[in-house]
Design brief:
Elements: E1 2-4, E2 11-15, E3 23-28, H1 34-41, E4 43-46, E5 49-52, E6 57-58, E7 66-71, E8 75-83, E9 94-103, E10 109-118, H2 128-135
Antiparallel strand pairs: 1-2, 2-3, 3-10, 4-5, 5-6, 7-8, 8-9, 9-10
Length: about 160
């Protein structure tokens, strides 16, 4: 995994090992709200139905929207799998998976988006099981305490 630790929003890219040609990127959103998480997955519940935030309307049946809830060691995940329907011809459209992992009892939220297959490919061609397997290995950890520089120790009176 390659990590960007220079930007204000921290991110990383996971690339499948070996000859497989797939990857996904993630970004950390410390303290993200439920609304922020919905923005990242591109969908939100309104009045008993899920709304496509790209178009601010309910998902159409041909988008094959699927909400996926899952969990890992110390987080709960939510994801949305959805087919592109408005772009290019069918052979160029993709099914995407947008997801967020929300730390249990903590502020960290890790979100990503990736293509899981072409819409004309069979469901068996989906990379989603492999992506989910990688996501489930993630564990949120506390950053190590920064050692204080000499002479900067606070004194107690």
């Amino acid at each position: 995994m390659s990590v960007d630790d220079q930007s204000s929003i921290k991110g990383a890219v996971y690339s499948a090992p070996g000859t497989e040609e797939w990857s996904f990127s993630v970004k950390c959103y410390t303290g993200a709200s439920h609304s922020d998480v919905y923005d990242q997955i591109g969908a939100k519940p309104v009045g008993g139905q899920w709304i496509d935030l790209d178009f601010n309307e309910p998902f159409k049946p041909k988008q094959k929207f699927k909400l996926i809830e899952f969990a890992g060691k110390n987080w709960k995940g939510i994801g949305a799998a959805v087919d592109q329907i408005y772009y290019a011809d069918a052979d160029r459209r993709s099914r995407f998976f947008n997801f967020c992992l929300v730390e249990n009892n903590g502020p960290q939220v890790l979100c990503g988006r990736t293509q899981i297959r072409g819409v004309t490919q069979p469901p068996s061609a989906s990379r989603l099981p492999k992506i989910m397997a990688v996501l489930k290995t993630i564990e949120f950890v506390d950053a190590p305490a920064q050692p204080q520089a000499p002479g900067s120790a606070s004194s107690v009176h």
